[in-house]
Model the fold of this input.
Amino acid sequence: MNDALANAIIGGALVLAAVTGVFSYLRRPTPRLVVAAVLMVASAVLVQAVVAAVSLINGERPQELGTFIGYLFFSVLVLPAAFAWARMEPGRWGNGVLAVGCLTLSVMIVRLQQVWDVTGG
Amino acid sequence: MAEPTNTGFGRVLVAVYATFAVAATARAGVQLATRFEQAPVAYLLSALAAVVYIVATVALARAGPAARQTATAAVTFEFVGVLAIGTLSVLNPTAFPDETVWSDYGRGYAFIPLVLPLVGLYWLRRTAGTRR
Done:
């Protein structure tokens, strides 16, 4: 696991959760720049998943392998799913869905790091 | 006229329910697959929680009276479940050797599992239309 990349994703996701939260409060559609930032974080998650998968193939093993793979798999899906669900209702509630997605992602990446740090014997 | 449960605030609610459906399913899946024999009852209850979240998510995401009934039943069951499992896990921690979504009233998930069914029931009532 690349800690710098993981921390960047967590930070980015938290900032985007706050930003989409504000646009939800303002009842405004999500600005294109924010949408681009969400897609950037989603791409970073994909890169991280590939990096982690390569480490697994190279023999590194977290203790809870199943849990780790579960988090890795769903971390890739969460932003695309939130994005698709949010798009159907731009404005207050679409932004709300994006905020939930970003918060969920940040928690998942924190858990992913925790599971990875407990390496098995 | 009853309003759909899947738009407006309901869209965010469905997103949160979907998150818990995935989290509970993944957790129960790992528990059942890797250490079922250590605590079969606890892990089966964990799987039951996952099923309840899946049913609630799908029912809330669909419009129509049948889906509304299903959603009300699932969310009510969810509330009873989190209270029951929460109480059991506090009184008898050894029966629940590791976290399920409903352990300690959902403490591992910022107590969202305790609040979520109340929000869900409120939303179902709020969108129910003329029936009060």
About this structure: Helices of chain B lie at 9-35, 40-61, 65-91, 112-126. The longest helix of chain B spans residues 9-35.
